[in-house]
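Forwarding these from the shared drive since the link keeps breaking.
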Amino acid sequence: MDLDTAKQELEEFIPHVRSISDSSIRKMAGRDLVRFKQFKKQGIAVKFGRFSQKENNQIRKNIEEFLLITGIDSAEKLLFTSRYPEDKEAISRLKAEYLFCQKLSEGIPRPWRLIYYRARKMFDPNNYKGRYTKEEKEKLKKYHAMHGNDWKKISEMMSRSNLSVAMKYSEIKSAINYGPWSKEETQKLMHAVEEVIRKRTEMEDGNSSSEKSNRDLLIDREKLYQKLPWTEIEAKVGTRYWRQCKQKWTTVLTNKMTKGQQLYRGTKGLQAKINLIKRLHEMKVEDANEVNWEELSNTIGDVPKAYVQAKFYKLKVSCVPFWRKKTFSEIIDYLFKEKLPELEEKL
C-alpha cells in the first residue's frame, strides 16, 4: 500500500494521522489497519488514552498464552529481549514464528505500538523499585551528562525502566520550585499553554500566517485541557515540574470558568460530593477509564474534568478504607452505602 492510501485509510480511525511520521504510518498500515477494520465491523471504535482494567487483563492473558505456546520462560525475556543477549536470537525467532505482534494486540482496539508500550510498562520489574535515593539521583545526573537522552542505556546502568529514568530526570534536571506559584510563573505557564495550543491549531488548519498568529484564538474549550504536551510546557516554564504545571493549569482554568467562586466549600461542597457519588453510582461502570468525566463536571459546576477527577480521588482516599485493594465499582458502592448517608445528614 502506498503512503497516501495508507494515510487516507488510517484517517478514518485516527483523525490526527497526518501529524504522525511517515515511518510510523507505514508500520501502522501493516500492523493495525486490518485489525481496525475488523473492530469497525463489530461496532468497536479505536481507543486512545488510559488503559482500562479490562484491557490490562487482556494484555496479561495475551502475554501468558504466548509464553505458554513458545516456552519462553518470562515476560521480561519476551518484552526486554536485549537484556538477555545469549537468548536473543532464539527469542526473536519464536516471536516471528508465532506472530507475536498479532498475538499481543488480540482483542484490544488500540494501535499496536501503544499496546506494546503498555505491556512493557506492566511487565518491567525495574518499574516498581520505589522512590529514588539521593545517591541514585546523583548517578542519574552523572549518567545523563555522559550519555545525553539515551534512556535505554541509562536505564540499564541504573536497573530502572526507560520511562522511570526519563521522567525522574525531567523532575530533577533543574532547581524546581515547590512553593506557591509566583505571578511571573503563572504568566509563563499561561503563555506556554497559549503557544502550544496556537501551534497545534495552526497545524490542524494548515495555516501559520503571521496575521492568524496575532489574532485572538477562538477554539473549543476541550482543547484547553486535553492532551497538552506537558513536558514541552514544563521546559517553557523552567521552574516547575510538568505535573505541577498540569495541576496549576487546572486551577487556573477552574477559576476562569467559575469566575472565582468556591464551588467545593461549605454546603456547596457537600452537595457537590453527594451529586458526584450519586452520578457515579448511577453509571454502574466497572472501571474508572469508562467514566465520562467531562459529562460529570456539571455535578460540581462548570469545571474541567481534571478538577472532578481530583475531587473524586480525594474523596476515595479520605473516605474508603483500604481503597487500593478495592475495585472501582467496590469503591463506588462503599461511598454510596456508607459515605452518602453521612454527607446527606451533614447537609
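-- next protein --
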Amino acid sequence: AELRAAVRALVGNLDTLFTALGLREESFAVGTLSRVIAAELASYAPARNRRRTATNKASVIFVDRTLDLAGAVGHHGDNLAEKILSVLPRLPGHKTDVMVNMVELTALQTTDETCSIIAPGCLAQPNDPAAQALWESFMNVKQKEAVMEARRHLVEAASRENLRCLNPFGAMSLGRVTPEQLSSYIQLFRNNLKALENHCGLLQLVLAMVQTLKHPQTSKWDNFLAFERLLLQTIGESEMPSVLNQLLPMIRSYNERTKDDYSCEDFLVLLVYMYSVVGELKSGKELDIAEEKVKKALVKAICDEPEPSPVLQKIT
C-alpha cells in the first residue's frame, strides 16, 4: 500500500511538471518498477486530458535504479582508467585520485610497497599536455590501444631528450606491448634529472598503468568478467536456484582459499550483480533452500576472516 501511494504521488508530480512544460509525452520503461510507473502515468486521468491539448512532444524514459547497481559492480569496462582507479591505493585526502609508486624512477630500489620516503605520484597532471592526452586515451579507448599509446608517448619523449634507446622505432612495430617493456622505457629517464622534470607527468601516468597491469587484482578482474558472462548465459537458460548452487562450492573460508579464489567481498559483489540483472524472481521452496545455503556459507566465511575489511566490518 505504501509503495502504491508513493508511485501515485510520483505520477501526480510528474503530471504537474509536464503540464507546466506543456508536454505530450511518450513513455518508455526499462525495469519492473519503471513499467509500473509508466503504466500508471499512461492511465492517469489528468495526464490523459493534458496529452490531448499539449503542443510540445517529449520522450520520457524510466529506468530502474537497481540496473545502476549492475553497472557499478560489473567488470565489463575495457578501459584502463577504470582499472587504475579500482586497483591502486587512494591518494590520502582524495576520493578520485590514486597513489603511484615512484620508487622505480629513483636510485633507491626497494620491494617494500609501504615505503614512504619517496612521495607518491598521482593521476592529475593539469600542466602536462602529453599526460592529459594519455589520460584521455585511458578513458576513451580500449586497453590494448591505450597501452600502445603510452608506448608511443614514452618513445617520443625519450627521443626528444636524446636518451639512448635500443632501436625504439623498431620496437614500435611489434604487436603486443608488455608492462616490462614499458618499464624498460621508463628506466631510460631514471638518471637524467632534466628529462625527469620535463616528462614527470607522463611518467607518473605510465607508471600507474604498469603497476595496474602487474597487480594481481587485474587478473582477478578478468576472472570476474568471465564469470559474469557465464552467469548471464546461465540465468538465461535456468532458474536462480541452480545458479546459486553453482556459486556455493566457490565460497571458501579464509583457511581454504588460495590467492585465485574469491574473497567474501568478491562474493557480495557477484551476488549484487546477479540479483540486479535477473530482475523479478519466482519465489518458492527451491529458491529459499538455495539462498539459505549461500547465506550460511557466506556467514561462515565472514566469521572466519582473521582481519575483516572495513566493508565487512560495516556489514556485520
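The chain has three domains: 1-67, 80-214, 218-315. Residues 216-237 form the longest helix (22 residues).

- D.
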